[in-house]
Amino acid sequence: MARDIAEMPLVRSTRVGGIRIHALEAGLLWLDGGAMFGVVPRPLWEERIPPDDRNRIPLAMRCLLIEAPGALVLVDTGAGNKESEKFHRIYGVANLGYPSRLEDAIRAAGFQPDDVDIVVNTHLHFDHAGGNTFRDGDGHVRPSFPGARHVVQRRELEFARGGNERVRASYLPHNFEPVAEAGLWSPVEGEAVITEGVRVAPTPGHTPHHQSVWVEDGGDVACFLGDVCPTSAHLPLPWIMGYDLEPLVTMESKRGLWPRAREEGWLLVFEHDADVPWGRLDRDDPTPSLLPSPTP
User: What domains can you pick out in the chain, each with its CATH number?
Assistant: First the structure.
């Protein structure tokens, strides 16, 4: 089991039809296992992801780079490097010089950060949108991808700006307001095609306006789940994070996804699973269970 970001490869690559996709390891964070599994008893979840002596479990911050026919698309950007040392200690953020690790991963996939045409955020929590911006040498926070249009659900952006005390700590304005000030947001409402071969659709529950991202080509499908199912251990319908704002809605989002994923053989991409970047559901097991997909 990965316990150190240095043990994780910068990039893993595969194909969805003719579209090449790259799982980029942007960092690692350690969060309380009980919070990550909500009402699931520890004797059950610790069999899947053993905790450390502080009850924390390792979680990837995995982004997805998509070589779509008309654009280079980056899905989520990790936690960024703008926060204090105290913040990094609280959340166990290990990123080895982030954002350079994300930049290095993009380069390892054969591109430069400036090549990114579109940034898609599943939602705007700090561990998914923190790398949208960076702090320059003068202390100013600027967009990390100034040549890219940025896509999120419109109501997610509104929710991030107007959240209450329960959610405010996860929505940090310097992760999304500099993008707005630069005129880079291109928000969508509901299901939308982002570019040829890439679409988004709402998968609410973790946040009310969370979205997942699909890559589709030649009958092949991959789904970047985001936090509707953060790890492969969260595949069972009732295995839901304590962080989810609407846990019963999360369960229904998963209920709507798994039958099609099973029947159509989707490649499911897990954003936070430190060991399993992606896999397919066993068509003969309604549990559901995962058959990890080997990386070419």
Answer: 5-292 (3.60.15.10)
Q: What is the pLDDT of residues 8-22, one digit of tens each?
A: 899 999 999 999 999
Distinct helix (H) and strand (E) counts, the chain: 8, 15
Q: Which helix (H) or strand (E) holds 257?
A: helix 247-264
CA 212 to chain centre: 9
Integer CA distances (angstroms), 36 to 42, 126, 205, 218, in order: 11, 16, 14, 36
Say if residue 227 is exposed, middle or buried (CB neighbours under 10 Å; 0-12, 13-18, 19+): buried
Measured at the CA of 22, the angle between CA 147 and CA 240, to 5 degrees, comes to 100
Alpha-carbon distance 121 to 226, whole Å? 9
Residues in the chain: 296
pTM comes to 0.95
Buried b / exposed e over 60-80, threshold 16 CB at 10 Å, is bbbbbbbbbeebbbbbbbbbb
Q: What angle do CA 60, 146, 21 make, to 5 degrees?
A: 40
| Torsion sign across C-alpha atoms 235, 27, 24, 210 | positive
A 10 A CB-CB count for 96 gives 14
Which residue from 39, 37, 33, 29 is spatially nearest to 51, judged by alpha carbons? 33
> Cα separation of 130 and 94, whole Å?
14
Q: Which of the two residues, 166 and 272, has the higher pLDDT score?
A: 272
